[in-house]
Specification:
By secondary structure, the chain is mainly α. It has a single domain, classed as Cytochrome c-like domain (Cytochrome Bc1 Complex, Chain D, domain 2, Orthogonal Bundle). 49% of the residues lie in helices and 0% in strands. It has 6 helices and no strands. α2 (36-49) crosses α5 (120-131) and α4 crosses α5. The longest helix has 22 residues, at 2-23. The radius of gyration is 20 Å and the shape is elongated. The protein binds heme C.
Length: 146
C-alpha cells in the first residue's frame, strides 16, 4: 500500500514537472549572439519580413525621427544606433509578435505584429540577428535588463 502511494506521488510529480517545463518553454531570455545558426535564421526572417521598413543593415528609414507623408512615425533603426537596446527582450519580443497595437492604446502606426508569420523561435532569432549589430557596450547593457 505504502509503495502504491509512493508510486502514485512519483507519477504525479513527474507530470507536474512536465507541465512546468511546458509553462517555462519560453523562458530562455536573454537572447545572446552565441549561436551563429540562430543569427543566420534571424537574418532570413528579417529579410523576408522587416527589410521593407527597417531597411537592409537594420539602418531604419531615412530621417527616421521625422514622420511619413501620412503623419505616421517612420521605422527606427534596429542596429543599435536608435533606442531599441533600451528595451528588454520580453518587450522586444512582444513588439515583434503583437505589434505596438496590442501594447499601445489606440495605436495607429505601422509596426504591426508578426504573430501569424513568425514562430516564437523565429522572433528570438531575429532578436539575435539584431543584437549581432549592436556595439559591445549596448549589447552588454541590454543583457543586464533581462
Ligand atoms: C510596415 C513597416 C514595418 C515593418 C514591415 C516592420 N516594422 Fe518594425 N517598426 C515600424 C515602425 C513605423 C516602427 C516605429 C513604431 C512607431 O513609433 O509607431 C517600428 C518599430 C519597431 C521596433 C521598436 C524599435 C524601438 O527602438 O523601439 C522593433 C523592435 C521592430 N519594429 C522590429 C521589427 C521587426 C523584427 C520586423 C520584422 C519581423 C519589423 N519591425 C517589421 C515599421 C515596420
Amino acid at each position: 500500500m505504502v509503495n502504491f502511494v509512493k508510486l502514485i506521488s512519483l507519477i504525479v510529480a513527474f507530470f507536474i514537472s512536465i507541465g512546468l517545463n511546458i509553462a517555462n518553454a519560453h523562458n530562455h531570455f536573454p537572447i545572446t549572439t552565441v549561436s551563429k545558426l540562430m543569427i543566420e535564421r534571424g537574418k532570413i526572417a528579417y529579410e523576408n519580413n522587416c527589410v521593407s521598413c527597417h531597411m537592409i543593415n537594420l539602418s531604419g528609414a531615412e530621417n527616421w525621427k521625422g514622420v511619413d507623408s501620412d503623419g505616421h512615425r517612420k521605422a527606427p533603426p534596429l542596429d543599435g544606433s536608435g533606442h531599441t537596446w533600451h528595451h528588454d527582450d520580453k518587450t522586444l519580443h512582444a513588439i515583434i509578435k503583437y505589434g505596438l497595437a496590442k501594447l499601445v492604446k489606440n495605436y495607429e502606426g505601422k509596426m504591426i505584429g508578426f504573430e501569424d508569420k513568425l514562430s516564437d523561435k523565429e522572433i528570438d532569432s531575429v532578436l539575435a540577428y539584431m543584437k549581432s549589430y549592436w556595439s559591445k557596450e549596448n549589447y552588454e547593457y541590454q543583457l543586464k535588463l533581462n
